[in-house]
């Protein structure tokens, strides 16, 4: 079910907890919410819909890709960019990496390790920051 976007910075600054199978509904809610905001969002983290769980979802073409308990395990190609966020007005400067490797679980809790580059890597970094209570 589509959820409202949270803008409370004190809430967003709290690190999220690991996801368990009991949290599967939150994954569905996050996917529904990004689809409902597809005209203005390419990624969301669960805390942005009021759930302090380590779940992110990002758009890859027309697909919404969820990642549970994502951890960036390597990063290269440091650069500075400007980003916006649905939870905050305006844009802010931040440091990102052009290539990252992420260890995560899919919706069935199967473990994956995958490399991402460029804009997809940037989206994932932004959303993983949300899981860690880091706000741009």
From TrEMBL:
Coiled coil: none
CDD domains: Pep_deformylase
Gene Ontology molecular function: peptide deformylase activity
InterPro entries: Peptide_deformylase, Peptide_deformylase_sf
NCBIfam families, per database record: PRK09218.1 (NF006670)
Family matches, as PANTHER family: PEPTIDE DEFORMYLASE (PTHR10458:SF22)
Family designation: Belongs to the polypeptide deformylase family.
Protein's name in the database: Peptide deformylase
Source organism of this protein record: Lentilactobacillus curieae
């Amino acid at each position: 079910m589509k959820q409202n976007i949270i803008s409370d910075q004190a809430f967003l600054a709290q690190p999220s907890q690991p996801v368990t199978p009991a949290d599967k509904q939150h994954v569905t809610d996050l996917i529904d919410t990004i689809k409902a905001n597809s005209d203005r969002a390419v990624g969301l983290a669960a805390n942005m819909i009021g759930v302090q769980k380590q779940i992110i979802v990002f758009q890859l073409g027309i697909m919404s890709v969820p990642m549970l308990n994502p951890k960036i395990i390597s990063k290269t190609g440091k650069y500075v960019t400007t980003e916006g966020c649905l939870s905050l007005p305006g844009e802010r400067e931040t440091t990102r990496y052009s290539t990252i490797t992420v260890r995560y679980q899919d919706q069935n809790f199967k473990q994956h390790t995958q490399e991402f580059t460029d804009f997809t890597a940037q989206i994932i970094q932004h959303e993983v920051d949300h899981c860690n209570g880091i706000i741009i």
